[in-house]
TrEMBL record, chain A:
<keyword id="KW-0436">Ligase</keyword>
<dbReference type="InterPro" id="IPR050237">
    <property type="entry name" value="ATP-dep_AMP-bd_enzyme"/>
</dbReference>
<protein>
    <submittedName>
        <fullName>Beta-hydroxyacyl-ACP dehydratase</fullName>
    </submittedName>
</protein>
<dbReference type="InterPro" id="IPR000873">
    <property type="entry name" value="AMP-dep_synth/lig_dom"/>
</dbReference>
<dbReference type="InterPro" id="IPR042099">
    <property type="entry name" value="ANL_N_sf"/>
</dbReference>
<dbReference type="GO" id="GO:0016874">
    <property type="term" value="F:ligase activity"/>
</dbReference>
<dbReference type="Pfam" id="PF00501">
    <property type="entry name" value="AMP-binding"/>
</dbReference>
<dbReference type="InterPro" id="IPR045851">
    <property type="entry name" value="AMP-bd_C_sf"/>
</dbReference>
<feature type="domain" description="AMP-dependent synthetase/ligase">
    <location>
        <begin position="83"/>
        <end position="284"/>
    </location>
</feature>
TrEMBL record, chain B:
<dbReference type="InterPro" id="IPR009081">
    <property type="entry name" value="PP-bd_ACP"/>
</dbReference>
<protein>
    <submittedName>
        <fullName>Acyl carrier protein</fullName>
    </submittedName>
</protein>
<feature type="domain" description="Carrier">
    <location>
        <begin position="6"/>
        <end position="87"/>
    </location>
</feature>
<dbReference type="InterPro" id="IPR036736">
    <property type="entry name" value="ACP-like_sf"/>
</dbReference>
<dbReference type="Pfam" id="PF00550">
    <property type="entry name" value="PP-binding"/>
</dbReference>
Amino acid sequence: MTALSTLPLIAHRHLDAVVAWRGSTPVSVRQFLGEVEYVAGQLPPGRHVLNLCGDRYRFTVALAACIVSGRVSLLPSTHTPEMVRQMQRIAPDVFCIADQGADVDLPTFRYPESMPPPAVTPAIPDIDCAQVIAQVFTSGSTGVPVPHVKRWGSLVRNVRAEAQRLGIGVGHAILGTVPPQHMYGLESTVLMPLQSGAALHAGRPFYPADICAALASLPRPRVLVTTPYHLRALLTEQATLPAVDQLLSATAPLSQDLAEEAENRFGTPLHEIYGCTETGQLASRRTTAGLEWQTLSDIRLRREGQTLWAEGGHIDRPTCLADVIELTGGSPVSTTFLLHGRHADQVNIAGKRTSLAYLNHQLNAIPGVQDGIFLLPQGDSPDSIHRLTALVVAPGLIPSALTQALRERIDPVFLPRPLLFVDALPRNATGKLPSQITQDLLTTLQAQSATREPA
Amino acid sequence: MPETNHELQNEVAGLIVSTLNLDVSPEEIQPDASLYGEGLGLDSIDILEVALVVSKRFGFQLRADNADNVSIFSSLASLTRHIAANREK
C-alpha cells in the first residue's frame, strides 16, 4: 500500500467554509486555524495533555493545537483521582487543558477566553502520518491502564472511511451526545467532521429536549451521533422529533426494535458503528436491514485457529480482536460478520468500558478490604442499563467509606449496586471462585435482602 | 422552603428511590445533600432516568446548557424547587 507521508489537519477547501457551529453561529475555517495557532503558541512546555474542555469546539481547537505542536493527547477512560495519578506515572510532564473548573490534580492551562483576530490567509497545516497524536487506554488486568498509540495517518484514514460509508461530507452538520474525550466521540464528532469537510456542533446536550433544540438549530443535512441509552430517552420523552438526515449509534448493541422506531420517527437511516480501542472503528451495519456487520473499506477479518485478526484499511499492523465474532461468507477471511458479544472479562455499562480484572484489582487495593469481587449483571436486554454487583469481605469498613474509596479509583458507572458485605468468599482449594457458586451466594444474599425490605 | 413543598419533596424523593431502585428509603435522603457524587451517588445515567420520570409525572421537560450542567440535581431541595416552579400537572 502506498501511503501519503502527510495528511492535512482538515479536509475543508475554503477558508470561509464552516468547520463548527456554536449554537446557530458558524465558525469559519479561517477563525478555527487562527485559534489553533494562537492556543498552540500559549501552551506550557509539557508534551502530554489531558484535554478536559467540555465545549466540543474548544476541545477540537485544543486537540488541533496539540497536534500542530507535536503534543500527545492522553485519553483515559475516566478522570478519577487514581486514573489521573496513573496518567502522571505514564507521562510525568502531563498537564490539563480546561475551559471550566477542572477537578483534577494536575497543572492546568486555562483555555483562552478571547483571542486575537486570525491572519487573513492562514495555511492548513499538513501533519506527518506517522506522528502519534493520542494515546488511548484499555484496562489492564493488573490495575494499570495499557496504552495504545494512535497515529495521525491511521486515524484520518479510519474516519474518512467512516464518512464515506455514511455519505457524510461538505455541508453536513454533526451533533454528538457523547463526550469527545472517548474514542467514539473523538472519531465521530471531532475527527470525522474535520476530515470530511463537515461541521461539528460545539455542544453536548444532555436532556432529550436539549438534544432536539440543538438539532433544530442546525442547518440540514444533520447528523446525530449518539448511543442506545440517549436514543431510548429521546424516543421515550419526545412526542415530536426534528428531522435528521443520518443517525449513528455506538458503544453498545442496539436492538432492532429500537432501531426501527428511531428510523421511523426521525425519518432517516440509522447505522451502528463497531470498533475497539486497539483498532478504532472497524465496521458498520444498518440495524434494521440485518444483524450482519460490513467492514469499513479494505478492512478484513481473518480467523487463524482460535485467534481473530483485523487487518487492512487504516490498521497499521494486524490486530487481535477479543470479542466473540462469527465470520460470515464461509471463508476464514471475511468482510462480513456477526458479533455475539464482548470477551467474557469485559464490562460495558452505558458505553463505558473496563474489565472485571481491573475493577477487582482496584477493589482489593483499598485498605481494609480483605477480599472482594465484582460480578456482571445478569440482565442482558440491549437497550436498558444494568449495574454491577460486588461482594466484599471488609469487616472494619462501613459501606459508605468503601463506596467513597471506590469512587476515587473507578468511574462512577461501575460503582456496585448493590455492594454486599460477606464474611468470606466461597473460594475453592486453588483460590478460584467458581462462577456458579458465586452466583448461588449472590442469589441467596439477594433473597435475604428482599425479605428485609418493608412491604 | 415553604410548607407546601414538603409534600412535593416527599413525592420527589419517592420517585427517585423507586425509579432507581435505590437501597435507601425516601425519608433517608437529606434535602440539602448532593444527589450525585459523594452524596446519594447518582450519576448521569440515573439523572437521565429520573428526568424522564419527572417529565412524565409533572408535565414539563428539563433543560440544561450542556451535559456538565445538571445543577437542578444538586440536591433534593433544588430539584423540588425546580419542579414546583415549572410543573404543569
